[in-house]
Known about the structure:
Rossmann fold, six-stranded mixed sheet
Amino acid sequence: MADNDITALALNCTLKPSPADSSTHLMSRQLLDRLAAHGVDGHELRLVDHDIAPGVEADMGEGDAWPGIRQQVLDADILVFVTPTWLGQHSSVAQRALERLDAELSTTDDQGRPILWDKVAIVGVVGNEDGAHHISAILFQALNDIGFTIPAQAAVYWNGEAMSTTDYKDLPETPQAVASTMDGAASNAAHLARLLRARPYPAVP
């Protein structure tokens, strides 16, 4: 792979199976489109469409879809982790993904480095209730713990009016503040991924 061939994987943590319309899907696609403008080739995976077993191992056995998803995470330079907000929290699907990624804490490369070093992560949060800062903090800490590097201003979110029923996907257009944050997050993520590709983290002495 050439140095400039940076790739991204968007993990869509909606609770709605395909082909249901989803605000999380919309934000995932918007972030991937902005990454594409920086030469990043990406695709989206809707986790709820796959049978991901509970647990904290890389492979939980027969019928577990996570090993194939895990390989896509390992193959991508940038992880786009997008979740809806329910009761002020990230979705149960998002939590399942974090629990399965926990297995990577003990996995190292041939230099003894955590296997997810040199990978970049950004976060998207949608919901018609508060909780985006809380969710972003949880996701960033968890993703950084397992090795992902977080770019500057890498949290993109939209909170609807309190007690309303309007969803992000129902808006006539993307709010300017959200659009500009997406632009910055995508630019910073692509920039950082290329830097880490060219100059990986050194092995720990």
